[in-house]
Amino acid sequence: MRVVLLRPPESGAGSFPMRRNPISSSREDDFRGRANMNVLAFTEGAMPTRILGIESSCDETAAAVVVDGREILSSVVSSQLDIHRKYGGVVPELASRAHLRQIVPVVREALLQAGLGFKDLDAVGVTQGPGLVGSLLVGITYGRVLATELGKPLVPVNHLEGHVHAVFLEAHRGGKAPELPATCLIVSGGHTLLYHLQAASGNGDASKRPFQYRRLGGTRDDAAGEAYDKVARLLALGYPGGPIIDQLAGSAATASSDIHETDEPNFGPVRIKGNPYDFSFSGIKTAVLYYVRAHPEFAAEIEARKVALHEGRRKASDLLPLCTPRTLSLICNFQSAVVKDLVMRTLAAAAETGSRTILVSGGVAANSELRNLFASKSASHSVSVFFPSRALSTDNAAMIAAAAYPHLLAGDLAASDLNAEPNLRLV
Ligand code: KG4
Ligand code: ZN
């Protein structure tokens, strides 16, 4: 569920009782000691564990309550798209300010939807990184203060691991458990990464232990979502670029199968020296740029779309009539090149590492052509491919609460001086 909250906070502090000086040294140094006691209770007891997840790494303020890392009681996302749209990308300073405005009402709404009060929570999980430092700090500061006040453990979560758990959340909803080891593609506006994922060794229920990761590859330049956003910007298709290009390409493919222009750039396959599981999308993006520059006839329709966007007509149905067959052809071929590259490298990585499971997550995992191509290739490559729902593909806090759960059980808790890690890696 994706909820954009319009209701302003009633007061700066919200219903959570904040003190003037919320983290005093006498109370802040006991996160781990106090939490160790709580962790014992979680592992021994049969009581469900309710974790509040908080996500503020980029341009969505999100909070969610998830039970035992599986059952979503609520998931609230306040998107900042309307703030950043006119700049064609996220403006970090504006993002931090919007997080400050939204964090209290978003958390409050998540509790309301879950039918819980602060005292019913067992732990707080918060995104520590990677992301924008100012944005991360809003969630971390709020999470630290809340956990201190409630006397509950605070679990730092890697945003990338959150995306991995989004797939498991969805699979559990459908009553399935992806078989491990798996190859995991995280593909968003900030990341394009391939990991090998396996269960941690040890006794007991493996699903309750943090996964072990091995990095197989990643982008050397633009992330796939970034390429979508940049191409959409240069063609005046609005922001973010992924959803609109996805929809326009879908409509174009349905309307006509023969819109290929003869002098179009040859996008692929992308050739990379060295690691075959690395990615590179800047070449594809630059090929679009040079092609548009070489064809002055694009100028009139680009101008018409800029006017439409300025007037708030930004849906695919508004922009489709303003796109010539040449533009639609370009969009389709750009998308196919990106999607084929993502799918082929992921399948190759799965084959080499012996994974029969592929997990795909991150904003670009919402892409229809990516889902279709993975689905059509999965049988011939003897792999099962798992995606989150579209709402869980893009940034949300349910995935953060789910990722926090095994770390809570393992006792991986925040130090009292938990800080943002803008470049945090998974491995
Ligand atoms: O995971 P996310 O919400 O935030 C980051 O961590 O980056 O991903 C946002 C990215 C944007 O670049 C957006 O254009 C892309 O995901 N995206 C899509 C689609 N929906 C969102 N890309 C392709 N097709 C889509 N349907
Ligand atoms: Zn993300």
Return the structural class: alpha/beta
Estimated radius of gyration: 22 Å
* Low confidence ranges: 1-30
Strand order, main sheet: write it out. 3-2-1-4-5
What is the average of the pLDDT values? Answer: 89
Bound molecules: 5'-O-[(R)-(carboxyoxy)(hydroxy)phosphoryl]adenosine, zinc ion
| General form | globular
- Beta percentage is 5-15%
How widely separated are the two ends?
30 Å
Instruction: Bin the helical content.
Output: 40-55%
Work out the helix count.
Answer: 15
Number of beta-strand segments: 10
Largest pleated sheet: 5 strands, mixed
Helix-strand string: HHEEEHHEHEHEEEHHHHHHEHEHH
Q: What does it look like?
A:
With about 425 residues, this protein is an alpha/beta fold. It has helices spanning about 25-30, 30-45, 80-85, 90-115, 135-150, 160-175, 225-235, 240-255, 280-295, 300-310, 315-320, 325-355, 370-380, 390-395, 400-410; strands at about 50-55, 60-65, 70-80, 125-130, 155-160, 180-185, 190-200, 210-220, 355-360, 385. The radius of gyration is 22 Å and the shape is globular. The structure holds 5'-O-[(R)-(carboxyoxy)(hydroxy)phosphoryl]adenosine and zinc ion. 5'-O-[(R)-(carboxyoxy)(hydroxy)phosphoryl]adenosine binds near residues 243, 364 and 395.
